[in-house]
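Two proteins, back to back. First:
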Amino acid sequence: MKFIPHGKLSATIEDNIFIIDGTGPWNKEALEQATRDFSDLHRQLYGKKWGVLVLTHGDPIHTPDATHFLIDAIKTDKEHGRVSTALVLKDCDDLKFAKIHIKDIYHKAGENLQFFDNEQSAKHWLQAQLNAGK
């Protein structure tokens, strides 16, 4: 049985921040497609210290297989300079559940994660993380 990607994702780079904008929930197929689509853009950061800003719309929920895929992807990124992730949840129906779900994923991946109310605060924190220890 072939599954259709569920969830939308787009990506850009600003300085050393990989910005992912997405509408969930997501399945593994959506994450696999995004990995293929963003591969060239994403790899521009490899070898540098870089952070991730995730802007979510709707409920940022991942199916179990998408969760495992994301954990592995984050671990791989960390081997290539990824330092921290800032997450801004927008239009989320169950903020408490969403934060628990996301924290669990990022904790299992060994990622430094913080939640923010707005994009500017998130970027400011990420820049501080990237500048630490320089």
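And the second protein:
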Amino acid sequence: MKLTLEVFIIITTIVNNLNFCHAFLEGLYCGQDNCYDVLGLTRGTSKEEISRSYRALARKWHPDLHRGDEAKAIATEKFQLIAQAYEVLRDDESRRDYDYMLDNPEEYYHHYYRYYRRIYAPKVDVRIVIVVTITLISVYQYYASNSRYKEAIDYFVTVPKYRIQAKDIAMDEGIWPTVTSTSDGKSRLKQRGPGNKQKLKEELKQEEDACIRKVIEDKMNIEGAYSKPSYKDILWVQLFLIPVFIVQYIYWYARWIYKFDIKKEPLGLVEKHYLIRKFMNLSEFQWAQKDPNEIDEYMREELWIRENFEPWKQKKDDEIRAKLAENPAYKRYRRYLRKGGPGQITFLDD
């Protein structure tokens, strides 16, 4: 019985010593030193007492107050340890993590995680970062879209075909600038006098260009990447409209099931187009760019019916493969692949 008690005491002492040894981890907080002991404090010390103790010790161990290389080196090391202990204990979150390490020395992996997470984690609220990021993306989206739209308009203004069409529209609507198009109906040439004909021509040219640009902007429907920018396309608005999109989709899907699966109503034109577009894996924009004659062919073939679409698709694929087989460029590409393809060097002639 006496031997068992002695063994128990020895084991308890070893465990306590192990916990004590592992209470301080190298590279974390104050290393192998106790931050409270470094500042001469206890765990119940207030923040004001921590600051006072730090200032007193910092004045005492400042390297500039010590002479000699050895004394200065010792003071520098001591001063850095004091500063480190102060940084750990003056912050509530850091102090709380440090106290947790003292109370739970065996969780050393957890201590490393908490310590480095606090050091390297962003100091700014993550919500602010998200809001600023979304805002910057939205601003860039609108700016880029507006730049592309202006680029498209600038191009169309230089194309003679569109200039002639825009001029005809402007003349039909009575907005085309002329020499007599003043508010009082008098000739601008008479108002300016005979010496200003060149200047009048330049003004008329500028007004004509502005008129053509306005007509093109108002009348031309530009879609795709160069379409007119809209606030609905920016990220912030899209995020706010997500619940609306979800509700619209649920309503559309429920309506489809009710009308066409339960009541067995005949499909309308919009529904037929949707099914054809779905079978072809086309977006709404891609479908809108389709030639009306192609869409008429799809409708004649009744491609909204899966049983009609599959053989039609197979037939089209066979026609494309037959055309490619007769294409000289495709033949050269096939020979290139047979000889090794990309990354291969060959001296064989085609």
